[in-house]
Design goal:
Layout (H helix, E strand, L loop, with lengths): L12 H20 L25 H15 L4 E5 L2 H9 L9 E6 L11 E3 L20 E4 L6 H13 L13 E5 L4 E3 L2
Parallel strand pairs: 1-2, 1-4, 2-3, 4-5
Antiparallel strand pairs: 5-6
Helix pairs in contact: 2-3
């Protein structure tokens, strides 16, 4: 193989096979309309990798929903920041205790406007700009966030949004039990 600029890049056989499998699955889902049933089913809104959307598996979404319900307690308020699959699992009513909490979703993807008043447009680039009429940030018992990118900039801005739910100087308001930052690869408590 030469180091010439005229060489045409090629994919390995393994990579090409994976790409072809992805395209086949995408076409099959569109052709057979294999969307999960129910407005709140995980996957009812397809993930869009161009927006860095990768939903949790049904099992993971269930485990996270169980944890935030446990943390929020009876009549707890939960904010899901860029975590639509957890929000969907909370709203399905299949997780024990989900009928005793309320949840909202802060999300950039406007396809989630189908969730009505539970949807709040959120752009991590403007971490403190929430629409007028948004519930007071201090009113959430649990804030679960899954930033769309693992860059320092994105993580810092999402953390800034979460801190705004704590009140001044990063202190939790009375009654705020937990604020969690989740990513696909890590979890840490934001103080």
């Amino acid at each position: 193989m030469s180091d010439s600029d005229d060489d045409i890049p090629t994919l390995s056989a393994h990579t090409l096979a994976a790409l072809q499998e992805f395209y086949s699955e995408t076409r099959a889902n569109v052709d057979h309309n294999e969307m999960p049933s129910g407005q709140f089913a995980v996957g009812a809104v397809e993930e869009d990798w161009r927006m860095s959307q990768f939903w949790y598996s049904d099992e993971t979404a269930t485990q996270l929903a169980e944890e935030v319900i446990r943390e929020a307690g009876e009549r707890g308020r939960i904010a899901c920041v860029s975590a639509p699959s957890v929000y969907q699992k909370l709203k399905q009513g299949v997780v024990d205790g989900s009928d005793r909490v309320s949840a909202i979703i802060l999300e950039y993807d406007r396809r989630f406007t189908t969730y009505g008043d539970d949807f709040i447009f959120y752009d991590y680039n403007e971490p403190l700009s929430l629409p007028a009429g948004t519930a007071a940030p201090q009113s959430f018992d649990v804030v679960l966030a899954d930033p769309p990118y693992l860059s320092e900039e994105c993580l810092s801005k999402v953390a800034q949004t979460i801190r705004s739910h704590h009140g001044e100087s990063g202190q939790r308001p009375p009654g705020c039990k937990s604020v969690q930052l989740f990513t696909k690869t890590q979890q840490k408590l934001v103080q």
